[in-house]
Amino acid sequence: MDLGDISNEEAVKYGKPLDGVKILAAEQMQALPFATQLLARLGAEVVKIEHPIKGESARGALPAMNDPSGRPVGATFLRNNLNKKSVGIDLSTSEGQDLFLRLIPNFDVVGDNFKPGTMEKFGLDYKSINSKYPNVIVISISGFGNSANSPYQNWPAYNSVAEAMSGLYDFKRRDGEPPIVNPMGAVGDIATSLFGVIGILAALRHREVTGEGQYIDLAMFDCMASLADVAINFHSMGISREPNPAPYVIAPFRCSDGYLVIQFVREHQFENLANLIGRPDWIGDSRFQERLGWGEHLHSEIIPALEEWSKNLTRSETSGLLAEANVASGPVLTTSEVVQDPHLEERNMIVALPRTDEINEPILLPGNPIKMSKVSEGPEMRVPWVGEHTNEVLTEELGLSKTELENLKKTGIISP
């Protein structure tokens, strides 16, 4: 889907569920920006506060493209900031803090994902905000939370730190091997963002009933402990690491054009598979009477038989036959195959952002996975340049005059 290829007329017809909700976000990287982008796609107005010259740290990520002024815009920023306005304010200054505080009563939600203590140092923490504006919802995302006495309170954290501490890495580790770190990109950031969206929507509903705002304090460690639920749950049941062999099969095997992943966890699925690939003898075989037998003989028996059966079949043909037998499988797609996948195209899950440098091919970004029957797709607005909407927002929200804006620019408080 190209940016803007859904008509405004269609968007007006249906509207968005969060039309009228305003979010002021002092955010960086991904843990909060992913959440606010999703809320913006659902209709919220998101005003992003970042450094007036450099912008937030995700702009410095690699790879990057250049904006119209030749400044780099990193991939992390590009993935997480569609449909937002950028206001450049230096929050390390008293004047910048005053501007931020004056903006707050015009917004429903105020968010940050700085290291704990940062917003308190600026006088912009929940206690300071709530004392003046008790109806405003405040959300903070950090590695280990702001509102408890965690022993890790002051540790800086990226997503991989929270993922590692959740137990997931060790749970999946094989004896004698080091853990596989960060296997899926920013899972810790994205998972925390999704919990943040749930918290914000719940707080907005609560405010409708009570008229009161509240504090949403999210720790990435908490969110990853929830996402990696098997680590805690299985430990309590005497299993400290994923069983090897396991009483189920989740494994790759080769077809004529690449790898396919197959998963079966129930006896009838195993029987369906055995009949499909011409091995009905497995059904009465004592080796496979218990589920652990599948894992014990996975690489010596099951995978070789699967690969012999599929060696002249494509991944698509193989998955089709397995689906008819009610056995779950799917191809291991390359990145080039993902961006051309007909399912993702049909569901508007590939968004094309035109580049502003010398390269013709657009930047491709994931679309909005939340499909609703009475909410239109798009239109999407490109990512903002650093401080692009500073004059607009400060004039509309605070009524600042041209003279006041120029004075703030001269002292470096806001973007030039």
Polypeptide structure, described:
- It is a single chain.
- The chain has 416 residues and is α/β, with parallel strands linked by helices.
- The protein has helices spanning 8-14, 33-41, 75-80, 94-103, 118-121, 126-132, 159-165, 168-171, 187-210, 220-227, 229-236, 267-276, 291-296, 298-310, 315-324, 335-339, 342-346, 390-398, 402-410, and strands spanning 22-26, 45-50, 64-66, 72-74, 84-88, 109-112, 137-142, 215-219, 249-255, 258-264, 328-331, 350-353, 363-366.
- Mean pLDDT is 94; it is low at 4-8.
- It is elongated and about 85 Å long.
- Helix 2 crosses helix 9 (187-210) and helix 9 (187-210) packs across helix 10.
- Strands 5-2-1-6-7-8 form a 6-stranded parallel β-sheet, with helices on both faces. Strands 9-10-11 form a 3-stranded antiparallel β-sheet, with helices on one face.
- It has 2 domains: 8-230 and 371-410, 3-Layer(aba) Sandwich (Rossmann fold); 249-332, formyl-coa transferase, domain 3 (2-Layer Sandwich), CATH 3.30.1540.
Average pLDDT taken over every residue: 94
Strand line-up in the sheet with most strands: 5-2-1-6-7-8
Strand content: 15-25%
Fraction in helix? 25-40%
- Under CATH, the topology of the largest domain can be stated as Rossmann fold
Fourth-tier CATH superfamily name of the largest domain: Crotonobetainyl-coa:carnitine coa-transferase, domain 1
Given as residue ranges, the uncertain stretches (5+ residues, pLDDT < 50) are 4-8
CATH architecture of the largest domain: 3-Layer(aba) Sandwich
Total number of strands: 13
The main pleated sheet reads as:
6 strands, parallel
Approximate shape:
elongated
Q: Number of helical segments?
A: 19
The level-1 CATH class of the largest domain: Alpha Beta
Q: Over the alpha carbons, how many angstroms does the gyration radius reach?
A: 25 Å
